[in-house]
Write a structure and sequence with these properties.
Layout (H helix, E strand, L loop, with lengths): L4 H5 L3 E10 L2 E8 L9 H11 L1 H8 L9 E6 L6 E8 L4 E2 L3 H13 L6 E7 L2 E7 L4 E5 L4 E11 L3 E9 L3 E6 L10 H18 L11 E6 L6 E5 L11 H14 L8 E4 L5 E9 L2 E20 L12
Parallel strand pairs: 2-3, 4-6, 11-12
Antiparallel strand pairs: 1-2, 1-16, 3-4, 4-5, 6-7, 7-8, 8-16, 9-10, 10-11, 12-13, 14-15, 15-16
Helix pairs in contact: 2-3
Bound molecules: pyrrole-2-carboxylate (PYC).
Pyrrole-2-carboxylate (PYC) binds next to α4 and α6.
Length: 320
């Protein structure tokens, strides 16, 4: 017996989105279809999303409509003056503070939709306003929130690895940055790198090592300079590695380089990801703070509507 046409054609929710990737890392810009999030600030709206509307995050980001690599960017009316949009980023694990590759995706998406053109655009985020510049050639520079090193040379004992040493730094998210010297970070190493960085994160948790005010360090970043090339591997909060060199991670790295006196203001730092994609970073010092600027390129990959039908047991995502 064929189902009644009303059952197969009924839709309870439609969420319009545009997907892109920045240096290989995907961003899903959510244009509309979400319930209104209460809050005077974007930080409060991010809280509301986590507290009361989490199933909307899982609908968008988890399988079967999303995946563990995806970062979503929910567009919201800005709360700060002169901003082109507000945005709350989230992934398979929960909301993010800032997202560098995601901001490149947002700017590229807004340009693709004809909402902005080349030039400077202020974007409101839960951790502050960032300014993104869309260049004539399609590259996007993100002037991120100030970055800083919180702790230098923190050692932690990691099961199966022994003692590991790294810096704790803020670049819009919290990072533990480990210098792996001349060790290569290549595609074939990814399963081992996943395992290693997840172990490091667990060890930091167990040792009670945190960012400022007890904030969880949810990103682990390995750095290599094998063959004179700066390459990284970044483990994201949801257990997927960043395909891009990670905008907030590169910002945290710039803060460490600045603190060590290893990179001058305005000097360009070329940061490769484990898949070989590149962001360029530089910083300036204003009011005694490191202001990072990260430049990369995003490309549109998909546009459409996420659809929810009544009776779908996985409408709100597959929660592992
Ligand atoms: O580019 O900042 C970034 C980022 C954070 C998590 C994934 N990408």
């Amino acid at each position: 017996m064929s189902p009644a046409p009303s059952t197969v054609s009924t839709v309870t929710h439609r969420i319009r989105f545009v997907d892109s990737h920045s240096a290989g890392e995907p961003t899903r810009v959510v244009l509309d279809g979400f319930p209104e999030l209460p809050g005077e600030t974007l930080a409060q709206q991010r809280e509301a999303l986590s507290r009361d509307f989490d199933r909307w995050r899982t609908l968008v980001n988890l399988e079967p409509r999303g995946n563990e690599v995806l970062v979503s960017a929910l567009l919201l009316p800005p709360k700060s003056p002169d901003c082109v949009t507000g945005v709350v980023y989230f992934n398979n694990a929960g909301p993010l503070g800032m997202c560098g590759h995601g901001t490149m995706g947002v700017v590229t998406t807004l340009a693709y939709l004809g909402r902005i053109g080349p030039g400077d655009h202020r974007i409101d985020t839960p951790v502050g306003v960032v300014t993104a510049t869309l260049h004539d050639d399609g590259r996007v520079s993100v002037a991120n929130v100030p970055a800083y090193r919180h702790l230098k040379d923190v050692t932690v004992t990691v099961e199966g690895l022994g003692e590991v040493r790294g810096d704790v730094a803020w670049g819009g998210n919290w990072f533990y940055l480990v210098d792996v010297g001349q060790r290569t970070l290549n595609l074939g190493d990814i399963p081992a790198l996943n395992d290693e960085t997840l172990r490091i994160r667990q060890a930091l948790r167990e040792a009670g090592i945190t960012g400022k005010d007890g904030a969880e360090i949810d990103h682990i970043e390995l750095f290599s300079h094998a063959g004179g090339i700066n390459r990284n591997f970044v483990m994201c909060p949801g257990g997927a590695y960043d395909r891009s060199p990670c905008g907030t991670g590169t910002s945290a790295k710039l803060a460490c380089l600045a603190a060590d006196g290893s990179l001058e203001p305005d000097q360009v730092w070329r940061q490769e990801s484990v898949i070989g994609s590149v962001f360029e970073g530089q910083y300036s010092i204003r009011d005694g703070q490191v202001h990072p600027v990260i430049t990369g390129r995003a490309f549109i990959t998909l546009q459409g509507e996420l659809i929810v039908q009544p009776g779908d047991p996985f409408a709100w995502g597959i929660r592992l």
